[in-house]
What we know:
Elements: H1 2-27, E1 31-37, E2 40-52, E3 54-62, E4 67-71, E5 73-74, E6 79-80, E7 86-87, E8 92-97, H2 99-105, H3 107-129, H4 135-160, E9 163-165, E10 170-174, E11 183-184, E12 189-206, E13 218-222, E14 231-238, E15 248-256, E16 267-284, E17 289-291, E18 294-301, E19 304-309, E20 311-315, E21 319-324, E22 331-335, E23 344-348
Parallel strand pairs: 1-23
Antiparallel strand pairs: 1-22, 2-16, 3-12, 4-8, 4-11, 5-6, 7-10, 8-9, 10-12, 12-15, 13-14, 13-16, 14-15, 16-21, 17-18, 18-19, 19-23, 20-21
Helix pairs in contact: 3-4
Amino acid sequence: MKKSIFLIAVAFTLIISCKNQDQNLNADVEIPVSVEDIRLKSIEEFVNTTGTTFPKGETEMKSKITASYYLEKNPQTNKAWQLGDKVREGSLIARLEDREYVNSVKLETNELNLELSESELRKQESLYEKGGVTLKDLKTAGINYENAKTTVENAKLQLDKTRIVAPIDGVIVDLPYYTQSTQIETGSIIVKIMDYQLMYMDVQLPEKYISVIKKGQIVKLTNYTIPEDTIIGFISQLSPAINADTRTFKGNISINNPKYLLRPGMFVKADIVTNHKDSVIVIPKSIILSRQRGKTVFIIDRGVAVERIIETGLENITDIEITSGLTKNERVVNGGFETLSNRSKVKIIK
């Protein structure tokens, strides 16, 4: 009996010894983690929305007469105007020729009549000063001169209908094809020009942001076709009224687009900057763990991971401000933290 008890005691001692050895081995295991040094950064808080961009300037020019069509050349390329060409205000895009129409305007005849009327007016003014004509004669000469001047101006306006001239700086976005010298009818579209160095977009914003979003706030705009570029705009107008059906209010964003990166009609993502801080501790939101006692992260202290309770401030989709719990130059674990416990030994892999 005594021998059996002794054997049992030896076996129990061996089991306890093995467990202690396993615990010691586990205690010595180093968990691989990656870390980053805590630095002071800036952080912005956003309200996200989307919308469609429109040009600030847009014009569609149509033929005002029936005439023969002739497309002009771009002086920059010495080739006929094409879609996508940039134009300056006053650039001649096309000519419309109709000799019968030009003759009916009688510009040269009207200009000659203007010269004669002006000469007669000067003569009457001189005679009136000498008492040679009455005031009525002078006024009649003045009326004839003004009528002749108006007739010439109207004639020039009529002839302007034969010249399709760009009324704004911009880019040709529509240029219907017509064979040179073919006759086109009144009302035919000749060219469409857009100026989209300045653009705008209307957005519908959730009611809860009506006290947060204000005129003048910076807006950062992106589109999938230009993933590496961010275009800057600002809130230019805000409606004070809430749409009862959608529970939203309307906003207008003005956009500076000097390099023409955004195009009219593009669907863009807009981040309205509602708050901004400089020189604060900022970490990725993804490394924060939620515990019963609060939000925590792991920092590295002498080769072990130490769990630290934190408090937060501003945040956006990816980052968050730390208002307490961390200090500059500490190293925070940003990879491999999922399996850590407080005081775990770690091996830093990057």
